[in-house]
Amino acid sequence: MADSTPTDSVSVDMDSITPSPKEHIIRTCHGSVSVAVYGDQDKPALITYPDLGLNYVSCFQGLLFCPEAYYLLLHNFCIYHISPPGHELGAAKIDPDYPVLSVDELADQIAEVLNFFGLNAVMCMGVTAGAYILTLFAMKYRQRVLGLILVSPLCKEPSWSEWLYNKVISNLLYFYGTCGVVKELLLKRYFSKEIRGGTQLPESDIVKACRRSLGERQSLNVWRFLEAINRRPDLSEGLRKLHCRSLIFVGDMSPFHSEALHITSKLDRHFSALVEVQACGSMVTEEQPHAMLIPMEYFLMGYGLYRPSRSSVSPRSPLSPSCISPELFSPESMGLKLKPIKTRIAGEM
């Protein structure tokens, strides 16, 4: 595997490699869902699902704007960004008479998206609430998931404190829309205190962009997704039955840090790895995307995938469990070697 030193950095012209995403609105048994498709659809599929109040731009843009990660993912995958209902760019308000979907119905929507595109087994990447939906999807449709990359995932039912916190946001969304208080509460969910700023520190550009993005969401659409997540059941007992490989990232300042430790303890350690990212909140994909690169390279090497050199041409890459090297299933590879990895941003090393 190529290392990630500055001499091995990759200069990528994003526009020259892939055109703008192709937006699809897919009708399912549980309403319409938006999917943005990046890359060559003859390649293996990577499905993404964002956190509450976000879409693929506000949740995964930081990762895809990291040149090495972008090159790794687009070399090996066609990316299918699924937005929670009504979270896509320019979404209209969902009809108030339409019932609020359950987390099970949201997971079933993903299966219908795969059917629409003729996809069989896929790789999945989700953030917090999106990670919960994809984990549930993997439990319901085990043959359709090759691997899980989960960022600050949820798996237990809400604690009383989380349930109450979510209820406050829910009521504010319903009666006052995406007001300033709602934005602040959601930003605390996503980011560490350091980049949110304060009296002595300026707010980072990442947080400013996310704040603007939240202002563009239809508040009642966000309310619907929050209501579903706040009624979620505990998945802990079913995690042992998941035998797809799982890579879990969590910021050590994430309010869901303990949740990520819990889900890791429930997964088979031979098939899972935990990466704890220091000085980071929940949304590692935006706050510290570089911390994800080397663990993802190790993880994808287990499927015969790799990050090519700058001069290589991007071929179609096979993705099949039969490509997994047996030694990469060992505890040393997916357990002791990668669990936990402590990372720190370069400026603090």
UniProtKB/TrEMBL annotation:
<feature type="transmembrane region" description="Helical">
    <location>
        <begin position="116"/>
        <end position="139"/>
    </location>
</feature>
<dbReference type="InterPro" id="IPR029058">
    <property type="entry name" value="AB_hydrolase_fold"/>
</dbReference>
<keyword id="KW-1133">Transmembrane helix</keyword>
<comment type="similarity">
    <text>Belongs to the NDRG family.</text>
</comment>
<keyword id="KW-0472">Membrane</keyword>
<keyword id="KW-0812">Transmembrane</keyword>
<dbReference type="Pfam" id="PF03096">
    <property type="entry name" value="Ndr"/>
</dbReference>
<protein>
    <submittedName>
        <fullName>Protein ndl2</fullName>
    </submittedName>
</protein>
<dbReference type="InterPro" id="IPR004142">
    <property type="entry name" value="NDRG"/>
</dbReference>
